Amino acid sequence: MSSNQVEAVLANLETTQDEARARLFDLLRIPSISAQPAHAEDCAQAARWLAHEFAAIGFTTEIRETAGHPIVLGHYAGPEGADAQARPHVLFYGHYDVQPADPLDLWESPPFEPQLVDHAEGPRIVARGAVDDKGQVVAFLCACRAWYLSTGALPVRITLLLEGEEEIGSPNLDGFLAANRSELAADVALISDTGMWDRTTPAITSQLRGMVYVQIDLFGPSRDLHSGMYGGSALNPINALTRILGDLHDDQGRVRIPGFYDGVAELPAALAAQWNALGFDERAMLRAVGLSAPSGEVGRSALERLWARPTADLNGIWGGYTGAGSKTVIPSEAHAKLSCRLVPGQDPAAVLAGLRQFVTERTPPGARVVIQDFNASPGVAVPVEGPFIAAAAAALTEEYGKPPVMMGCGGSIPVVGSLKSLLGLDTILMGFGLEDDQVHSPNEKFDWACFEGGARSHARLLGKLGGFG
Amino acid sequence: MSSNQVEAVLANLETTQDEARARLFDLLRIPSISAQPAHAEDCAQAARWLAHEFAAIGFTTEIRETAGHPIVLGHYAGPEGADAQARPHVLFYGHYDVQPADPLDLWESPPFEPQLVDHAEGPRIVARGAVDDKGQVVAFLCACRAWYLSTGALPVRITLLLEGEEEIGSPNLDGFLAANRSELAADVALISDTGMWDRTTPAITSQLRGMVYVQIDLFGPSRDLHSGMYGGSALNPINALTRILGDLHDDQGRVRIPGFYDGVAELPAALAAQWNALGFDERAMLRAVGLSAPSGEVGRSALERLWARPTADLNGIWGGYTGAGSKTVIPSEAHAKLSCRLVPGQDPAAVLAGLRQFVTERTPPGARVVIQDFNASPGVAVPVEGPFIAAAAAALTEEYGKPPVMMGCGGSIPVVGSLKSLLGLDTILMGFGLEDDQVHSPNEKFDWACFEGGARSHARLLGKLGGFG
What we know:
homodimer, Aminopeptidase, Alpha-Beta Plaits, four-stranded antiparallel β-sheet, 15 helices, globular
């Protein structure tokens, strides 16, 4: 075999662009919002769509039920022959579920009616899930499809693991991994749910933050009270909740949860130097989202704060009267959603325990507090050396004409930690998103050039792993 | 003339109970909800009903239009003769509008189909407006009517001022008072829109809290952001808002707004002793609403905190994701509604300025804050001595067999301040509500005994002011 086969695969991708886009649009039209029970059947439909698509190119696929949304499991046996069977076996992980689309009125087109929109920087796909993660999964699908159609086979063994609960913290994934260890055996994992350094520079992500996510419910009086008749005597749950949460950071921007920084290492000097050399312009990033000044820990570089330091952010808060004008009520309850991004070295269980202690210590007499725990995953560091990362780096270098940046990522992909701890797999994090993709926001988009570059890079990587070129 | 005339008036009230109740039911059937434009004609109808009823007993009445709902203005010239004209001229203020009846499904009978309901503590009228304020206005009407029917005249000059916008903050009342000063000239104002101490103990309210009510809108990024991608760099408006509001009280429960306590006097020792002697059971009041411990300023008695100390209560808060489960968003904005109850001596404008300073000083760089001001009225102290209060106290003592409690009120009746500042009038606050009347809530009620006692007390007070007995 020769690298001509890779050229044929790339040529096939070139001529099937319209078909690829139609395929992606089909998936984007399914409102598979995992957080909302009303969309359970949509999640199941997205799973069936993916199982069908991969089955069409030689995968054996199954829909595996969980206590929540199903998992699509697929196996591609790989080419025959001892030589071929000696090639690395890749486990590809992706997710077909998406975030809720609210606030709907800020979308320029309906979130589940995908559009190809012209833009000064090139055309883009606009829809919920365009980049996170449906577009990136379909880019991989198209790479496999091009191999299958132009050469009759995929060059390596592949196990496919597509879940439908990533956006709600993957409550059933670890159990599934633990229960199906032998069926999921592979040599390396590949995930495409991260970003490029910029529009023309590829990246491999080597460091991910973890997360602890809780909801704090604070209860006071048994009914809403008139603030004139009771104000000065009755506990006000919103007063109490803001008092607790207002104490979350000290004047240096450090998080006050007890034990929060236990295990957090200082950034190695070499990595710090590498990141500093990237010339990241924090003010430009913030300007693009309407902010004039950075926030966060005093005395830390921007990339350090974004990639290598833990945070605590309130993601939602509500209580009392929220309509127009005034209503003089002391409400009976108040609520907040709080998430901490964790870095490697922090123990999620310890952070959660510290958070419970932090809230409980500050809850006034007479109030009752409930802390619901939605999510707890550690930060993860991925090896930056070895044959698999080298193959990915080579594929990206060929595609983009320059080597990838080895970057950190402020977000969390908890499955990376689970794949390591439960299946012993290191992960290649090769993604094609851009900073302005509006992930989790209205008008989420995926540049068409990124989709295409992603599909081509996946095709090249499969070739590299299969020993082609 | 003799106190036999008062006896005749009371006897007339006794024999006309059914007629009085029918009259009250007629007014309660009119859904005069001032907040809802669909009920504008109902408000006008309630105004016409009152004008007609008072015209039937010798008042000259007019419907005076405003930019909102009309004001009923009435004049009773009083008995003839120099002696009679020397008697005090009373301005009676009341309001014919009511709060919205929502939530409708919690009413045991339709809110605008008044019922006489038997109860262990005696029969009660159940309807929206039963006690606030239609029932109390009709009690005064019946007192006037009984004087008119049994003696042929009312004993004093009376100006009637009945508005239809009390429940929406009286936006047109101050303008009306200022524009009609000479027509509204009187010696003392009388309002019946407050409560008794308990079922058998009358009260005169001598102190009312005022209010400053604002909405705080805090704006950060121009769109919602992914907390993984931006957390540690982008300003989080909920973090910022809770940090500002969490600072609102110190560890002693005192409000930290600059200058907040300027002008707040310590409670006079005599009044403190009187209130302490009432034996108010704060824990029982709180237990009834599910609270186990009092809140508020350390080292102050319960009635002092409720009646004579200013407060700051958050009435509503919202921002970010408030649905089920988790969403890792840094929202673009966060909001809160905050009201301060003021006591006499505090300047609402100064409190508002202090509040703006408090928020602005704590707003981090890059955030934008807007403070909307909905309401500002001062706390009011009514003189507890002098001939008018003495007359009211004597009338109540005769009716109930014990002297009235001179009590404070944690709520606000802004018109009391306006009557003083614009017309120079002190107000007698003689009301007949009970703590369990469900004011502004479903199943609002007015005990029939309170209605009757109110009508009789008003009849006695008119007699006292007219020099009878």
